[in-house]
Specification:
Helices cover 6% and strands 38% of the residues. The protein has 181 residues and is mainly beta. The two termini are 16 Å apart. The strands form three sheets. It has a five-stranded antiparallel beta sheet, with no helix packed on it. A hairpin with a 2-residue loop joins strand 2 and strand 3.
Length: 181
């Protein structure tokens, strides 16, 4: 699938996140209601100790799909999203954005996308704001290196994966098994 600029995806948004520094540290808002209209119901956080940690590509099937606001609190990632919306002009294409604590951005991914990232710094902390609760029975994982998706992951000395993510399915398997995307 082709890689597109994040601007070519309907619904993907990137916001600057202000950092207010002082002599004792800093303050920053991770979310204000002026960013998007979603009714967020869950806040989650992940910590990855190693550079080269891959998480994803995750999505939940409708009606349990999730929109996400993603912030890097510490470290840096290359964030990837795959458009799984059949009626979209960017269907099955992927995009990527670098999120880094030193140049803080907020990434908004609407419902209908698979999502994953790779850490490009050790000890990375990522914050997620979700508009739908986690439902393990409706969660799906596309294997990170699926050739049909064709993501060009940054070269690393070593990649680190969870057992769950390594047992992800190819996009073809997900479609063949009628798992709703």
């Amino acid at each position: 699938m082709p890689r597109l600029s994040e601007l070519e995806f309907s619904g993907i948004k990137i916001f600057d996140r202000e950092i207010f520094k002082s002599d004792i540290g800093f303050f920053s808002n991770l979310y204000t209601s002026t960013l998007v209209n979603d009714q967020f119901t869950q806040d989650s956080i992940s910590f990855s100790a190693e550079k080269g940690t891959v998480r994803g590509l995750h999505f939940q099937s409708p009606p349990y799909s999730q929109s996400k606001l993603i912030n890097v609190i510490q470290g840096a990632i290359v964030d990837f999203f795959v458009d799984l919306r059949p009626d979209s002009s960017s269907f099955l294409s992927y995009g990527k954005v670098i999120l880094d604590q030193s140049d803080p951005k907020i990434l908004y991914i609407p419902r209908g996308f698979a999502h994953g990232f790779v850490t490009i710094q050790a000890n990375t902390i990522v914050s997620y704001k979700l508009d739908n609760e986690y439902n393990p029975l409706k969660e799906n994982t596309i294997i990170w290196n699926d050739p049909l998706v064709g993501i060009k992951w940054p070269a690393m000395n070593q990649y680190f994966h969870s057992t769950k993510d390594l047992s992800g399915k190819s996009l073809s398997e997900i479609i063949e098994n009628n798992l709703h995307i």
